Write a sequence for this structure.
């Protein structure tokens, strides 16, 4: 058997395949008037002693336009009542912000970073609280650092930030959610694979995966899920590495592994994505509202995201990845196979 080359960070990509008829039903063209733009245009027109544009004019204009769905360009129909003032037409067109509203990309495509440490198996087997107070908490801290930077994170941890109380509350509640979910799972079939010696236990950076929804937050149907397990890019590795990510003496990023696929398949199951004891996970759903996140605004100042209303998520607390993927002994026709010793 070849030497196993283990990396502490993997990327799991999930793509929910939505039928075309559902996608088209949930795609809309939106025309929004920029109020401040109207004030700006009318101020310019007033200074030039030209007639101001009123809301009644805009209503009449709306009846004469359509939107090219490909490039979102406003198309003005012929004026049957007379000749248009081209300057007025251009001013009218500039008032509108045209956008296409559809199923959000993040609701269809998910990128989950999987973290490995030898302690994960031990903590899970022994039902040790450290799986939460050490492993999961470190992953959550890393998520915060990735969002707001290390300096802001240190200020919150050392109680120098006004966001420290919120940070502590969010961390506490997120860990509590994981603990409660774990207690519901540990006596089920969905949990037993953690004792399988052929598997390495990885913990996700995000345990909640949004079930695809339309623009109104309503769940929609999907046909299948494309699952891809791969090595990270150098940037992903740098941004998500918590401890020493490569089990190598020089601890450097291996460009020969960058983006290479370990395993790839498509599955039609809505809930259970386990495949041939190669990629294993617990199978659960949870209905919950989420706390806001601490993020940076456009000026790089700390702020909070909006709370997320209650909805249903897939809950995946841990993943078991078969060691065969790393030592080159797993072969199957039709599966994209990684060869890292070429």
């Amino acid at each position: 058997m070849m030497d196993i080359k283990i990396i502490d960070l993997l990327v799991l990509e999930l793509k929910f395949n939505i039928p075309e008829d559902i996608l088209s039903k949930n795609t809309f063209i939106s025309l929004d008037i920029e109020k401040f733009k109207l004030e700006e245009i009318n101020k310019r027109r007033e200074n030039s002693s030209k007639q101001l544009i009123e809301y009644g004019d805009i209503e009449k204009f709306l009846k004469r336009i359509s939107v090219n769905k490909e490039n979102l360009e406003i198309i003005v129909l012929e004026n049957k009542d007379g000749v248009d003032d081209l300057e007025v037409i251009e001013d009218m067109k500039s008032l509108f912000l045209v956008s296409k509203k559809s199923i959000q990309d993040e609701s269809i495509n998910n990128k989950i970073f999987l973290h490995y440490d030898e302690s994960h198996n031990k903590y899970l087997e022994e039902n040790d609280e450290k799986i939460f107070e050490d492993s999961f908490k470190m992953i959550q801290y890393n998520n915060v650092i990735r969002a707001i930077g290390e300096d802001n994170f240190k200020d919150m941890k050392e109680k120098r930030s006004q966001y420290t109380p919120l940070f502590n509350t969010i961390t506490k509640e997120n860990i509590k959610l994981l603990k409660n979910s774990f207690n519901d799972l540990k006596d089920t079939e969905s949990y037993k694979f953690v004792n399988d010696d052929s598997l390495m236990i990885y913990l996700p950076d995000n345990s909640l995966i949004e079930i695809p929804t339309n623009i109104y937050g309503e769940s929609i149907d999907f046909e299948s899920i494309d699952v891809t397990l791969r090595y990270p890019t150098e940037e992903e590795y740098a941004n998500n590495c918590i401890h020493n990510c490569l089990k190598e003496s020089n601890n450097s990023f291996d460009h020969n592994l960058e983006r290479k696929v370990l395993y790839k398949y498509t599955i039609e199951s809505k809930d259970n994505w386990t495949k041939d004891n190669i990629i294993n996970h617990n199978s659960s759903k949870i209905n919950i509202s989420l706390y806001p996140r601490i993020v940076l605004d456009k000026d790089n100042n700390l702020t909070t995201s909006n709370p997320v209303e209650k909805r249903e998520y897939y809950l995946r607390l841990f993943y078991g990845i078969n060691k065969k993927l790393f030592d080159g002994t797993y072969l199957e026709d039709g599966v994209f196979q990684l060869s890292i010793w070429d």
Observations:
- Residues 246-250, 333-342 have pLDDT under 50 and may be disordered.
- The chain is about 30% helix and 25% strand.
